[in-house]
TrEMBL record, chain A:
The UniProt record lists the keyword Oxidoreductase: yes
Chain spans, region Disordered: 140-166
Keyword set, alphabetical order: Oxidoreductase
Protein name, UniProt field: Thiamine pyrophosphate-dependent enzyme
UniProtKB/TrEMBL annotation, chain B:
Keywords: Oxidoreductase
Protein name: 2-oxoglutarate synthase subunit KorA
MF terms in GO: 2-oxoglutarate synthase activity
GO BP of this protein: organic acid metabolic process; sulfur compound biosynthetic process
Source superkingdom: Archaea
Domain Pyruvate flavodoxin/ferredoxin oxidoreductase pyrimidine binding intervals: 234-479
Gene3D superfamilies: 3.40.50.920, 3.40.50.970, Pyruvate-ferredoxin oxidoreductase, PFOR, domain III
EC number, as in UniProt: 1.2.7.3
SUPFAM superfamilies documented for this protein: Pyruvate-ferredoxin oxidoreductase, PFOR, domain III (SSF53323), Thiamin diphosphate-binding fold (THDP-binding) (SSF52518), TK C-terminal domain-like (SSF52922)
Catalytic activity as recorded in UniProt: 2 oxidized [2Fe-2S]-[ferredoxin] + 2-oxoglutarate + CoA = succinyl-CoA + 2 reduced [2Fe-2S]-[ferredoxin] + CO2 + H(+)
Record-annotated Pyruvate/ketoisovalerate oxidoreductase catalytic domain positions: 15-199
Assembly and binders: Heterotetramer of the KorA, KorB, KorC and KorD subunits.
Family matches, as InterPro entries: 2-oxoacid/accept_OxRdtase_asu (IPR022367), Pyruvate:ferred/Flavod_OxRd (IPR050722), Pyrv/ketoisovalerate_OxRed_cat (IPR019752), Pyrv_Fd/Flavodoxin_OxRdtase_N (IPR002880), Pyrv_flavodox_OxRed_cen (IPR002869), THDP-binding (IPR029061), Transketo_C/PFOR_II (IPR009014)
Length: 311, 631
């Protein structure tokens, strides 16, 4: 008996299954990079072989946070910066779900920064997609943690005095076992990377460069990209932490001026996911917690049996 | 001095083993047939500093700490002495003796460790004169020397217990049994030797006191549990198998108990980066089909306000704990207060719909935790248990049979896949999660991974299908539906076994109203005043939101005046009653205490008598009478 029959269903999945037949229609601005993420995700999910009913997409707040409204799967549009803790717990309660978290750069690297660091550190087996448009979109164009130094906005009219955050380096150093960057204008690569990220067993961090034509026309998110793995100029070993770190440093320094590089930066297949580690020390049951509630034969321990130590 | 009860205080430095020693002694007293109640006083530091635990034991029911106490075992603070003999933790070794004298009752017994406390120091605090004035019986014993002789210095606790047992004529058999359970080998041998020798030493003493151990006999097996134990066990029996948290005193107790038990029960415990994450994890776990709990204390709970609102809006059932300590801000980390009531009732934005219970004792803590899960999962609403440092840590004996209940792992209004097939779906095949059939506000939910159950949960206002919406009609419909649940819950709580507890004669014309852990002291005060010829009754309220309105109205209407008793400075519960009932400003007075120590029954008796005498006079202790409006 399975309480969750959608899980493990191995039929062929049509990408249209992920598109709602009725409303809502996306409310994103024409030309917004967010459309590309949605599209890439719809293409990637069938390839990973997960049905809409076994997929949970948890998003934060912002234009990016609306993603869960437009994908026909289980969805949770949570609150600003908190998609990761919600997603992590869902995966712990039922490790058999495909769990994806997504949100903007303000959402994930700003208000949710602490959760990002710790989710990566613990290597939770979830995929985290950050729509990096270098600006707060939904609240109308304020400076974000990834806005370049000198970026002018309504709240920093003289230009930002802050250096931008380096998300790839942060993800790597915090402990993510898969770190990649892709871009809205590069749909084929985006799909491939999402497939890899979702298949990866551990925390996969995808910094997704998206353009915001409404508030951030100057961003380099519009220029063509070079895939680091496909260019002979950038030869490095993605499984080597040090080499990955050097490449990230170069990429993140150059993003605001030089060539924009995307691709996989770090892939560690060896490191066990948090779920595995937790199971190994006996803190995560073999059967999903969620299943027990639907299992009529489940034996529920009673507090009565613990009383001996108090008598 | 009351002689039918023993109120034993063991005092020493934090880290001196006061807690475990007292726990064992309390258990031994319980095993010898007595009812016990413990009260823990400790400073916010790990080692050293003055700390004590009080154990009240009697042949009759005890529901509170007593008035003062009648036996002091002052061990001295070993951390006040540096091994190198330099004052390292401060020169405070005398404090366990000197700091406790004010509350020792007339005729009380003092045992102090001569091996640790200098004669000169003791002379400085005028112990002899004070003993004479108060009729105390003082027994200096070289506990440290005795311990060292047979084992190690730390075993002076055992020596102190042995002397105590000897002085009050208590059989040491139960103490020996407990030691045998807890230790083995040389350590056990040494401790047993020390215990027996100390016990025997008393024969040589020239004893002058009359205090002896009371007699009692239980009909059934007893267990000694704290409020935190009871909450953790209530959660286990309710089927809770997911807890997430971040340490903060005193909520940490429950978090620890469940973290230790869940691995053997197929549950999951997660310590996370902060309290926002902790509560958000509970939401995520519940959404994915677990019965989930999180919690914190004042400052940590403040961070949970945001995910709490998310749970309300997405109608995700969760149970949160708020174990209060004195605030504002970090306040007094190890001191109880009932100052977070308004915070818990109103935190988070918007018109909120949450359910708040305030258990008043260990048994209620267990019952209401179970109820909190039941209501949360039946009605898809966050429920909160608000309690405090006092209830967290106080140990009371409870009939073992009380806990003998069937587990209730029911997920409430959650559909199975078969039921989902019958449910409404939109044209995309999405389950209409928030559609509503008009019954009780509850729209049944599905769990990710269930076939045919997919839907969108969102913290934004949403349509019956779960889509974000700012449509005016929809807003009103959804808001009304969510709020309606509270009315239905109020009805259910009113009809069910009542959470409000009463003492005193129905026809009394003076009333006391209290909530949470102040219950015991209030009830005991009522008993005493009625014995003394007054006519007083009391109610302890647990349903804070929705408030137990009808019961409170009936109670207030039946008396001439009612005094609301709570541990805070701003009369928060009285304010809630007046707000919710919209009247009684002239009929309600307050008795407030907020010095970090819980009420003693005598303070309540004294304050009531002042009111009954027509309001003249001031209470002598650190309590405040707040008059009625227009008084
Ligand atoms: C706690 C909280 N603070 C602020 C906001 C307001 N807010 C909504 S979206 C947003 C910015 C989102 O920016 P980003 O994450 O970069 O996403 P984008 O809209 O660019 O996709 C902010 C600040 C909020 N909803 N909640
Ligand atoms: S404001 Fe920017 S990020 Fe938001 S939808 Fe428009 S283009 Fe996209």
């Amino acid at each position: 008996m399975s309480a969750f029959n959608a899980i493990g269903d191995d039929r062929e999945i049509d990408r249209d299954e992920y598109t709602p037949e009725v409303e809502p229609q996306p409310t994103w601005c024409p030309g917004c990079g967010d459309f590309s993420v949605l599209k890439a995700l719809k293409q990637a999910l069938p390839e990973v072989g997960r049905t809409p009913d076994e997929t949970l997409l948890v998003t934060g707040i912002g234009c990016s946070g609306k993603l869960s409204s437009y994908l026909d799967s289980y969805g949770f549009h949570s609150i600003h910066g908190r998609s990761l803790p919600v997603a992590r717990a869902a995966k712990l309660a039922n490790p058999e779900l495909q769990v994806i978290a997504a949100g903007g750069d303000g959402d994930g690297y700003g208000i949710g920064g602490n959760h990002f660091i710790h989710s990566a550190r613990e290597n939770h087996d979830i995929t985290y997609i950050v729509f990096n448009n270098e600006v707060f979109g939904l609240t109308k164009g304020q400076t974000s943690p990834t806005s370049p130094k000198g970026h002018k906005s309504k709240t920093q009219p003289s230009g930002s005095a802050k250096d931008p955050l380096r998300p790839l380096s942060l993800g790597l150093n915090a402990g993510a076992s898969y770190v990649a960057r892709t871009a809205a204008v590069n749909p084929n690569q985006a799909k491939e990377i999402l497939v890899e990220a979702m298949e990866h067993d551990g925390f996969s961090h995808v910094d997704f460069l998206t353009q915001c034509p409404t508030w951030n026309k100057d961003a380099r998110q519009y220029v063509p990209y070079v895939d680091v793995q496909e260019s002979d100029d950038y030869d490095f070993d993605v499984t080597d932490r040090r080499e990955a770190a050097d490449m990230m440093y170069e990429t993140e320094s150059a993003l605001y001026e030089g060539t924009v590089l995307t691709g996989r930066y770090y892939v560690d297949e060896e490191r066990p996911s948090y779920q595995e580690e937790k199971r190994a020390v006996g803190e995560l049951p073999d059967e999903p917690v969620a299943e027990r509630y639907f299992d009529e034969d489940a034996e529920w321990e009673r507090s009565y049996d613990l009383l001996e130590r108090h008598t | 001095m009351t002689t039918d009860e023993l109120i034993w205080r063991i005092a020493g430095g934090s880290g001196d083993g006061i807690d475990s020693t007292s726990q064992n002694f309390a258990t031994a007293l319980m095993r010898s047939g007595l009812d016990v109640f413990t009260h823990r006083h400790y400073p916010s530091r790990i080692r050293g500093g003055h700390t004590y635990v009080e154990i009240r034991a009697a042949g009759h029911e005890v529901q509170s700490r007593g008035d003062g106490y009648n036996f002091l075992l002052a061990l001295g603070d070993s951390f006040a002495r540096n091994p190198q003999d330099d004052a390292y933790y401060g020169n405070e070794e005398l404090k366990p003796l000197s700091e406790n004298l004010d509350e020792l009752n007339e005729g009380g017994v003092i045992v102090y460790d001569e091996g640790l406390l200098d004669d000169e120091d003791v002379a400085e605090i005028d112990l002899e004169e004070r003993a004479e004035e108060n009729g105390w019986h003082v027994y200096p014993v070289d506990l440290r020397g005795l311990a060292k002789e047979h084992g190690r210095e730390v075993m002076r606790n055992t020596a102190g217990v042995g002397i105590t047992a000897g002085l009050i004529d208590m059989d040491i058999e139960h103490i020996e049994d407990l030691m045998e359970d807890a230790m083995s080998g040389d350590v056990l041998e040494a401790n047993l030797e020390i215990l027996r020798e100390a016990y025997g030493m008393v024969d040589e003493f020239d004893t002058t006191h009359e205090l002896t151990v009371p007699t009692g006999a239980h009909d059934t097996g007893q267990a000694l549990l704290s409020g935190s134990n009871a909450i953790a066990y209530g959660a286990i029996d309710a089927g809770c198998r997911f807890i997430s948290g971040y340490p903060m005193t005193p909520w940490t107790d429950v978090f620890t108990i469940l973290s230790q038990n869940f691995p053997d029960m197929g549950g999951v415990a997660e310590q996370v980066e902060d309290e926002i994450a902790a509560a958000a994890l509970a939401v995520g776990a519940s959404h994915a089909g677990a019965k989930a709990m999180s919690g914190s204390s004042g400052g940590g709970f403040a961070l949970m306000s945001e995910p709490l609102g998310l749970a309300e809006m997405t109608e995700t059932p969760i149970v949160l704990l708020e174990s209060m300590r004195a605030g504002p801000s970090t306040g007094m980390p190890t001191k109880p207060e009932q100052g977070d009531l308004e915070h818990v009732l109103y935190t988070s934005q918007g018109d909120s719909s949450r359910v708040v219970f305030a258990p008043g004792n260990v048994e209620e803590a267990y019952e209401q935790t179970r109820l909190a899960f039941e209501i949360a999962y039946d009605y898809q609403i966050p429920t909160i248990l608000i309690y405090d440092q006092k209830l967290s840590g106080e140990n009371t004996n409870v009939d073992v049979e009380f806990f003998d209940r069937e587990p209730a792992p029911d997920l409430g209004s959650t559909l199975t896949e078969d039921e989902l097939k019958e449910a409404a779906h939109d044209a995309s095949g999405k389950f209409e999660r928030f559609s509503y059939d008009g019954e009780d506000g509850v729209s049944p939910r599905s769990i990710p991974g269930q076939k045919g159950g997919r839907f969108l949960a969102t913290g934004n206002e949403h349509t019956p299908s779960g889509h974000i919406s700012e449509d005016a009609d929809n807003r009103v419909l959804q808001m009304n539906r969510r709020l309606e649940k509270l009315d239905v819950i109020r009805e259910e709580l009113d009809e069910g076994e009542t959470n409000q507890t009463y003492v005193g004669p129905d026809d009394a014309d003076y009333g006391l109203i209290t909530w949470g852990s102040s219950q015991g002291a209030v009830f005991e005060a009522v008993d005493r005043m009625n014995d003394a010829g007054h006519s007083i009754k009391a109610v302890s309220v647990s349903d804070m939101m929705p408030l137990a309105e009808s019961e409170l109205v009936a109670f207030i209407e039946s008396v001439d005046e009612a005094m609301v008793i709570e541990m805070n400075a701003t009369a928060q519960f009285r304010g809630l009653i007046q707000k919710e009932l919209g009247r009684y400003g002239e009929k309600l007075t307050s008795l407030l205490k907020y010095n970090g120590n819980p009420f003693e029954p005598a303070e309540i008796v004294e304050s009531c008598e002042i009111r009954l005498d027509g309001g003249a006079g001031e209470p002598s202790a650190q309590v405040r009478i707040e008059p009625a409006a227009g008084d």
